[in-house]
């Protein structure tokens, strides 16, 4: 068997055994979530994707939680988070590849809604919790 054939066979086997949902492309995406609830409230954040559970994190006022990943090849990368304070739980898709084009996404979590922020332009857009 030629070297070229061996390499192609090896590549084919790797592709077959690699979970397709884990196949990632492009530059790393950085998502930062900031507690901007005010009144000294702690924010409990629990984020997940289809394949990853990032665990629960408690953020004091102005603290942040980073999420770093690469988008998947199918264009459907999704990270969703629960946000808990004062005994209430809210949900939001913190990164949805079909919605978000940012590579360095900064989200501030307010009591009324989560807002995407651009360092140059301020608040880009606010969304509703689910």
From TrEMBL:
Coiled coil location: none
Cell location: Secreted
GO cellular component, one term: extracellular region
Keywords: Secreted, Self-incompatibility, Signal
GO biological process, one term: rejection of self pollen
A Pfam family assignment: Self-incomp_S1
Residues in the signal sequence: 1-23
Family the entry assigns: Belongs to the plant self-incompatibility (S1) protein family.
PANTHER family, per database record: PTHR31232, S-PROTEIN HOMOLOG 29-RELATED (PTHR31232:SF43)
Official protein name in the record: S-protein homolog
Species assigned in the record: Citrus sinensis
